[in-house]
Amino acid sequence: MKLLYRPLGMLFGALGGFLATAIFGQIWKLVAGDKEAPSATMRNRAWTEVLVAAALQGAIFGLVKAAIDRGGAKGYQKLTGEWPGDEED
Fold it and tell me: Which superkingdom heads the taxonomic lineage of this protein's source (predicted)?
């Protein structure tokens, strides 16, 4: 039964990536006032701005991924009665 969760987890992960990108874009607009966050290869952006954007983006992606993974696992458990992930020893 746990094998059934893998494709669902992959689908939820992809959707989470889109959601995290949208959330980051909106937060960056509010925080920095720019329409686009800097990438590491943008010549006219300062190191500080690039690194702050990367850290914020990483934090948002991590938070969204954990929330979606956890929610998916809880939903799967409710439907099947099995926990799809690892068990603590």
Answer: Bacteria
78 contacts 10 by C-beta, under 8 angstroms: no
The span from the CA of 76 to the CA of 12, in Å, is 12
The length of the chain, given as a count of residues: 89
Give residue-wise pLDDT tens across range 2-16: 778 888 888 988 999
User: Each residue of 20-75: pLDDT tens digit?
Assistant: 999 999 999 999 998 899 999 999 999 999 999 999 999 999 999 999 999 999 99
Closest CA to 36 of 48, 46, 66, 27: 27
